[in-house]
Write a structure and sequence with these properties.
The complex is a heterodimer. Helix content of chain A is 0%, strand content 52%. By secondary structure, chain A is mainly β. The N and C termini of chain A lie far apart (37 Å). By secondary structure, chain B is mainly beta. In chain B, a hairpin with a 3-residue loop joins strand 7 and strand 8. The interface between A and B is medium-sized, with 26 and 24 residues.
C-alpha cells in the first residue's frame, strides 16, 4: 500500500526552541495532507489541512502562528512547532490521500513523531 | 458536530475467542466510516472503508459492518498479533475525519 514517511520519529527539545517535522508521501502525490495531534488515551485531533501551493486551513483553537505548516510540493508537508513549550509535548501524526486513485477518504498515515519539550 | 463513540474502551480476549467492537456515530452527510488499527507508538494503519448502511467488508479475521447509527468490527478467532488499538472515524466534508478514542484490544495466548 501507499507509504507516508514522517521524520523525525522522536525529538526532544528545550523550551523556546522550534522543531520541524516532515511528512512525505513516498509513492504517490498528495495535494492535501493532514496534521493530527494525539494525546494518550485520546482521539486523534485534526490540527490543520495542508494544501499544496496554498495556505493551510487550521481547525478552531489551533494557533497558526505556533504551528506553521508548509506544503511546498506534492509529496512534502512540514509542521514547525515554534517556540515550543512543555504543553506542546505530544504525538504528531500526518496523513495523506492518494489523489490519483480517487479512493475517497482512505488516508495513509505516517508513523508519527513524538515531541518532548523539556 | 460530528461525534464518534467507541466501546468498550478496552477488551481482553483469549486466543480464539471471537467478539465485536462497537462504533456509534452521528454525522451530517456521511461520506464514509473508516476503521484503522494502531500499534503503540505508531501511526494508524487503514483497514476498511464503509460507505452505506448494510455494507460489509472482510479482511482475514476482521469483518466490518455498518448501519445508519453504528458500525461493528467483528473479530473471529483472534490471535495475539491482533492485539492493538482499533480506531473508528467518520468522514465528513473535505475528507476531514472525526475519530473515536479507540478500543484497546488485548488477545492473550
Amino acid at each position: 500500500g501507499a507509504v507516508v514517511s514522517q521524520h523525525p520519529s522522536r525529538v526532544i527539545c528545550k523550551s523556546g526552541t522550534s522543531v520541524k517535522i516532515e511528512c512525505r508521501s513516498l509513492d504517490f502525490q498528495a495535494t492535501t495532507m493532514f496534521w493530527y495531534r494525539q494525546f494518550p488515551k485520546k482521539s486523534l485531533m485534526l490540527m490543520a489541512t495542508s494544501n499544496e501551493g496554498s495556505k493551510a486551513t487550521y481547525e478552531q483553537g489551533v494557533e497558526k502562528d505556533k504551528f506553521l505548516i508548509n506544503h511546498a510540493s506534492l509529496t512534502l508537508s512540514t509542521l514547525t512547532v515554534t517556540s515550543a513549550h512543555p504543553e506542546d509535548s505530544s504525538f504528531y501524526i500526518c496523513s495523506a490521500r492518494d489523489t490519483g486513485t480517487g479512493m475517497a477518504g482512505e488516508l495513509f498515515f505516517g508513523e508519527g513523531s513524538r515531541l518532548t519539550v523539556l | 458536530e460530528d461525534q464518534v463513540t467507541q466501546s468498550p474502551e478496552a477488551l481482553r480476549l483469549q486466543e480464539g475467542e471471537s467478539s465485536s467492537l462497537n462504533c456509534s456515530y452521528t454525522v451530517s452527510g456521511l461520506r464514509g466510516l473508516f476503521w484503522y488499527r494502531q500499534d503503540p507508538g505508531k501511526g494508524p494503519e487503514f483497514l476498511f472503508t464503509l460507505y452505506s448502511a448494510g455494507e460489509e467488508k472482510e479482511k482475514e479475521r476482521l469483518k466490518a459492518t455498518l448501519t445508519k447509527k453504528e458500525s461493528f468490527l467483528h473479530i473471529t478467532a483472534p490471535k495475539p498479533e491482533d492485539s492493538a488499538t482499533y480506531l473508528c472515524a467518520v468522514g465528513g466534508s473535505n475528507y476531514k475525519l472525526t475519530f473515536g478514542k479507540g478500543t484497546l484490544l488485548t488477545v492473550n495466548p
